[in-house]
Amino acid sequence: MDRSICIILMIALAGAQASAEGLLEPSCSTLLTGDLANILMVTDVDGDGVPNILMGTKIGGNLHNYVYKDADCTQDWTHMNGGWTYDTPGDVRSFAVSDLDGDGRNQVIINSITSSHTQNTPKEYVYVIHANGLEDWDFNKECGLSASVDAADVDGTGIDNVILGTKSKKVCALADDTKSKKPVLWSYVAADPVEFVKGADMTGDAVPEIIAYSGGYRKGDLTLLSPLGQKLWTAKISGGMYNAMIPSNVIKVATLSSVGPPSIVIGTYESGVQAYSNAGKLIWEYKTGNLISAMEVADIDGDSDDEVIIGSAPNVIILDGQGKKVASWNSGSEKTIYSISAYDMDSDGKKEIAVGTHKFIYVLDDDGSKYGEWKYTVEIQGLTKAYEERDADAVSVFMGDLDGDGEAEIASAWNWQQDTHRGNQYSLALRAFEIDESYREAPPTTTTVMAEPEPDVDKPTMTEPTTTVVTPQRDDTIEDEPQEEEEEEEEEGGMCCIPMLPAIIAAALAVLLRLPLAIRRD
Fold first, then answer.
1. Which tens digit of pLDDT belongs to each residue from 217-238?
2. Could you tell me the pTM of the whole model?
3. What is the secondary structure of 476-521 as a DSSP string?
4. What local confidence, expressed as pLDDT, does residue 76 receive?
5. Residue 441: which of 12, 3, 22, 11 has the closest Cα?
6. DSSP β-ladder status, 219-225 and 263-267
7. Distances (CA, A) of 297 to 33, 369, 512
8. Is residue 365 exposed (0-12), middle (13-18) or buried (19+ Cβ within 10 Å)?
9. Which of 91, 181, 183, 202 is the most buried (most CB within 10 A)?
10. Which residues neighbour 112 within 8 Å (Cβ) at sequence distance 6 or greater?
């Protein structure tokens, strides 16, 4: 064997080995063409002790339910194992899970609005389905088309009420018996369409108040309502929120101090992050110089007080309960940070942070340093029918226990679009990852997959909101590995690798067996 071929083969094997190993190890995946993902939620829908992964989409208007436990990840991740899909149609932007009739079984409440891509309008204003995906009831009466839903027991009966925020500027609480002739318990009229509602006990009396956000272009109101629907206070949000994001990504209820009542934290378009007390007083604000596109609150350091983790491209910033920066990390990219999740993945009493952005999922340690990353590039057919690379966006990321085994995994929804001779084609992938807790900051892992052939349907052009920032240089370059000294070549020449050939072949087979996602088509 020629010595140069020998060296090339060994380098190729080393490279393949490096790309196969990483913090995030891809397991299950599914590819859906003609649709884009909005949001993920992981919860036990049917009470069997097994988490369900719920994903709402914005073109097909679907709510998908996937089950990771015992899934066969050697094939496309289907809706088997108790999963299902429910079609609204429209654009599914929020959903909630609750036992609405006291029978010990959960229902799923789904809101769907008119899709900006297809102009499809949902048939009903809110949907309630059983845990098995079959429709229970729908409601298309006086409150109007819902833009946000939640469930909270505002009437003290022990059964949660459906809470709606609607495009017709209303907040509505539905009675327990929603099939009666008078299903609306109360309604509140805001100044603008209500984009977000959430029930939370803000006063410590064990009865939830309702948090509502209403707004329009560059304006917004944050309002707290009593359990009876009376306005307690309203705070004006200068510039409003970043309207391209799902509101639940940037409005959170936080325990900023373990000795005080909960607070409301909101990420804004031009005023940074603002924290409000349960009485509507602005406690603090932290200006980033850029819009807030993602946010999470979690007790990162284990001191019983929540920290606020914000995504404001190119930075991920961790704030303490007083709004002071305690750590930050620079992604090195001006692209939008879409999603943030926090979970103690290594059982050290402190939470790590998963960040979904353009091309990458990043995992950060509690001090803001990078733990690892995973890159997803997609090979697709372009206008010339030549394959080229396009990058996907990790629009929603969840880090937690996906299968009930007590170990952390990651679920992520990825979106991308491509230009074809038939117009724009949209695609999404739902992927799950196992986590290698022993891994720390190594070369990024990349999986390249082939997209499905484009459907024979024209789609409208999607334009992503742009953000103007100064892109700093990355400071996480990887030093070259020291090269081992070459062994002396045998006198007869050209035979350096023959004695090693069996070991090289065995190593190559081992590498290929460890790269199921890189060698098979999703």
1. 889 999 999 999 999 999 999 9
2. 0.78
3. ---PPPPPPPPPPPPTTSS-SSTTTHHHHHHHHHHHHHT-HHHHS-
4. 79
5. 22
6. unpaired
7. 33, 18, 40
8. buried
9. 91
10. 61, 88, 89, 90, 91, 92, 93, 122, 127, 146
Separation in Å, CA 312 to CA 37, 295, 298, 323: 21, 9, 18, 15
Record the tokens describing residue 167, joined without a space. 């495009």
Q: Please give the pLDDT value at position 491.
A: 41
Handedness of CA 514, 516, 517, 519 (dihedral sign): positive
CA distance 353 to 373: 11
3-class SS at 13? helix
- Work out the average pLDDT over 470-487: 37
Rounded to an integer, the average pLDDT of 374-398 is: 72
How far apart CA 31 and CA 114 sit, in angstroms, is 24
What is the per-residue pLDDT across 315-353, written as a single tens digit (0 to 9) for each? 999 999 999 999 999 988 888 999 999 999 988 999 999
Per DSSP (E only), the strands in 273-422 are: 273-276, 282-286, 294-298, 307-312, 315-319, 325-330, 337-343, 352-357, 360-364, 370-381, 387-391, 393-400, 409-420
List the one residue out of 142, 126, 148 whose CA is nearest residue 211: 148
Residues 388, 379 contacting (CB under 8 angstroms): yes
Highest mean pLDDT among 150-159, 236-245, 254-263: 150-159
Q: Identity (one letter) of the amino acid at 428?
A: L
Q: Of 135-149, 200-214, 398-412, give the lowest mean pLDDT range.
A: 135-149
Q: How far is CA 102 from CA 70, 85, 159, in A?
A: 30, 25, 6
* Euclidean distance between CA atoms 340 and 20, whole angstroms: 25
**47, 224, 253, 382, 416 from 393: Cα distances, Å:** 32, 34, 27, 18, 6
Tokens of 489: 């070549």
**Residue 248 φ then ψ, to 5°:** -65, -15
pLDDT at residue 495, rounded to an integer: 41
Rounded to an integer, what distance in angstroms lies between the CA atom of residue 142 and that of residue 444? 52
Alpha carbons 282 and 399: distance in angstroms, whole number: 31
**pLDDT for 156:** 94
Angle between the N-to-C axes of helices 3-20 and 501-513, in degrees from 0 to 180, rounded to the nearest 10: 30
- Are 91 and 195 a contacting pair, CB within 8 Å? no
Token pair belonging to 67 = 């089950």
Give the Å distances, CA to CA, from 246 to 57, 174, 201, 218, 439. 12, 23, 23, 16, 32
Backbone angles phi and psi of 231, in degrees to 5: -70, 125
Task: Select from 379, 373, 346 the least CA-distant residue to 360.
Answer: 373
pLDDT band at residue 181, thresholds of 50, 70 and 90?
Answer: low
pLDDT digits (tens, 9 = 90+) for 48-60: 889 999 999 999 9
Is residue 71 predicted with pLDDT exceeding 50?
A: yes
Q: Given this model, what pLDDT does residue 22 score?
A: 81
